[in-house]
Design a protein that fits this description.
single chain; 2 domains; alpha+beta; binds flavin-adenine dinucleotide; 16% strand; 10 strands; membrane
Length: 233
């Protein structure tokens, strides 16, 4: 399934757009990648000239090897934790080791927190990074944060994730925008040119510094007028 985080209507729109653009969608799980073809789980072979792998990635072997309790929902394959992430509590602490925190894709809530493991998204990682920066500032102001300074510090509110929505471009100035908290709740859920405009504007707000925003906006504009610049120096 492509774009599975979107509802059926938006997914169908994306499929139609991709098919219209000449994309052939093949459903299956890749079992093997060979120098000139992919092998799917049903035995089908898909020949290729250039392969671009853009699916999600699992936990790195380094994260898997760490001797910390892992988040719940991990898949065990051949007695090894295949997608396990470092288990954290509601303050993003690794409970078994003092003064160690984990944020982003490498971590997930421990089962004891009763919380769902959050999706591996930039949106989650960014929010956790900001939360942790504020928490560490609070620790420093309370006299902690130094070597051998075992002070009891109030860590403040727990980390709470509020989903701001999902966006995806499907090319040719078309995109999907779903600003609802979940697929069943009310809110904006649209597809087409307006979505593409919202998608672009939203990404511009995430670029660091006004200078870079200006560079990016000018680059988009020149690409629209003159086409994509594929020259390399
Ligand atoms: C193809 C693809 C498309 C995606 N699209 C989206 C999207 O549209 N929207 C969205 O919100 N999210 C998307 N994501 C997910 C998003 O990229 C991640 O959730 C986000 O980057 C996680 O941030 P992070 O800081 O946890 O990890 P990363 O961004 O992966 O940063 C981890 C860093 O640690 C470094 N590192 C790893 N191991 C070591 C080590 N042993 N020593 C030192 N450094 C190390 C890595 O090199 C890397 O720089 C996508 C992911 C993929 C793979």
């Amino acid at each position: 399934e492509i774009l599975s985080s979107f509802d059926v209507r938006l997914r169908q729109y994306a499929i139609n757009q991709l098919v219209k653009s000449g994309v052939r969608l093949v459903r299956g799980i890749v079992k093997d990648v060979q120098p000139d073809k992919l092998i799917l789980d049903n035995g089908e072979e898909v020949p290729y000239g250039l392969l671009v792998w853009s699916t999600g990635v699992g936990a790195s072997s380094f994260v898997k090897s760490l001797p910390f309790p892992k988040s719940h929902g991990g898949r065990i394959v051949n007695r090894l934790c295949a997608v396990c992430r470092i288990g954290v509590d509601e303050w993003l602490r690794v409970p078994s080791v003092p003064d160690v925190f984990a944020v982003g894709d490498c971590c997930g809530f421990l089962e004891s927190t009763g919380k769902e493991v959050l999706p591996a998204l930039a949106q989650v990682a960014e929010r956790q990074g900001l939360y942790l920066a504020r928490l560490l500032n609070r620790v420093m102001k309370s006299g902690g944060g130094h070597a051998n300074s075992q002070v009891e510090v109030d860590l403040g509110p727990k980390f709470v994730y509020k989903h701001l929505g999902s966006m995806a471009t499907v090319g040719r100035y078309k995109a999907l925008v779903d600003l609802r908290q979940s697929k069943d709740s009310k809110g904006i859920s649209i597809a087409g040119f307006a979505s593409w405009f919202i998608w672009r504007s939203a990404y511009l707000t995430r670029v660091v510094s006004w200078r870079n925003r200006l560079y990016v906006a000018i680059n988009w504009l020149t690409t629209m007028i003159f086409g994509r610049d594929i020259s390399r120096i």
